[in-house]
Every structure is written in C-alpha cells, then in structure tokens.
Fold this sequence. Notes:
CATH topology of the largest domain: Endonuclease III, domain 1
Oligomer: single chain
Radius of gyration: 18 Å
Structural class: mainly alpha
CATH superfamily of the largest domain: Hypothetical protein, domain 2
Number of helices: 12
Number of strands: 0
CATH class of the largest domain: Mainly Alpha
Helix content: 55-70%
CATH architecture of the largest domain: Orthogonal Bundle
Order of helices and strands: HHHHHHHHHHHH
Mean pLDDT: 88
Amino acid sequence: xxxxxxxxxxxxxxxxxxxxxxxxxxxxxxxxxxxxxxxxxxxxxxxxxxxxxxxxxxxxxxxxxxxxxxxxxxxxxxxxxxxxxxxxxxxxxxxxxxxxxxxxxxxxxxxxxxxxxxxxxxxxxxxxxxxxxxxxxxxxxxxxxxxxxxxxxxxxxxxxxxxxxxxxxxxxxxxxxxxxxxxxxxxxxxxxxxxxxxxxxxxxxxxxxxxxxxxxxxxxxxxxxxxxxxxxxxxxx
DNA sequence: AACCAGGACGTGA
DNA sequence: TCACGTCATGGT
Length: 237
C-alpha cells in the first residue's frame, strides 16, 4: 500500500452509486463508443456529439469497427472529439482506416489525413505502431499490459481500447472522470490514475455495459462541469 | 485572442 | 518517482 494520505474524503454526499444513478436518469443511456456509421443519429444532451448506439452493447460487430474504435481512442488523446471525427472520416475516405493499409501507408498520406486531430506527426507514428501490433495480434484479445507495451498507448488509451474495442471489463478513467469526482466532492487531488480507477471499480457494477455507461456518463457530465456548475451538480447533494 | 480539448512521452532533478 | 515541457489543430 502506498504511504499516501487518503485522497477520498467521505463528505455529506450522495453515495457515489446514487450520483451515477442520478446522472443516468438525467442524461439517459449513452451507448458508447461512437462509430462513424451512426453519425447523425442519437444526438446527446450536449448536442452535436453523435455516433452512439444507446441500449445496444454488442459492439464491435466487426473487426473494422474494432479497429476504428482503437484508432479513435488514440486520435482523441488530449483532443476534442469533433476533430477526431474529421480525421477518421479522412482516413476512411482514402482507405486507411484498416490495419494493413494504414500500416503500409506513407507518412505524408497519414499525416494529411489525421491533421485535423492535432499532434499529427506523433499520432501518425502511434497509429502505425498500433496497426502493426494489431496485425500481430490476430484473433487474440490484448491484455492491458500488452497494450501498454505499445509506444503511444498509455493507461487511458489502453483501457479505452480494452473496454470498447474488445468489450473487456476494464474501467476507463479520463480527465472528465477526474473532474466529476473532484467537483462532486468524492475525492481530492492529486488524482493518480490507478487510484481513481480502483475507486470507480469499487462503486460500479462489474459488467462491461455498466463500465461503458459509467465512463460515458462521466464524459457527458464532465462537459457540463467545464462551463459552469450545473443545476444537477448543485442539487446532487 | 487566449484558452481548452475524452494523453503520452522525454527529460532533468 | 515526479514535475514540467512538448506535441498541433480547431472551437469557443
């Protein structure tokens, strides 16, 4: 056990599980991960973020969807999703949203396709290295440690790929999750990734759909908290 | 016109 | 270990 002060102070709050229930009631089922083929359907409460499939947890249906999800997870690193959508569209339109062609593509081709999502040189390298890893994988499901061995894939990206591309029971913690936990008074900074992950695991039903909905709700709610405290966050005590 | 967005890596202390 | 700089585009 790390010799650190306990980061999670129990205040007079809803039990965390009940906050999650309140968020679900408020925002509804999310149905992550967004896919291009669903673009334009199921707009969420925040508006223009589309591509979800609420209520259907059998994704990915195909290897193509799996690869698209993983690429999106890499491209969205510190980047607004709307920019990632453009990059994914560009990749698909030139036939590069597929492991073999992406791996074989020339740098300038990849770079120009993903430029809208930023960090285009670093992400070109990351996508290519992931494509290589993905091809070597065959039909096997990568462990978290497998993914962390790949340059460009850190804890959150690895967990996102595990939970959404491979439908494995893996809790995803992102900036929005941390923001919600802090702003709603369930923990204090500094928020170490693995400790937040364990906190969430302790409070969420241990099923893949529950993990997916939980993470998606954290993002949806976190986006609101970015602007100003919402009525929900004020009422939720 | 700053500031931020669904991080990860390299570096020096 | 850990704090900090770097990577880059597009929206608000």
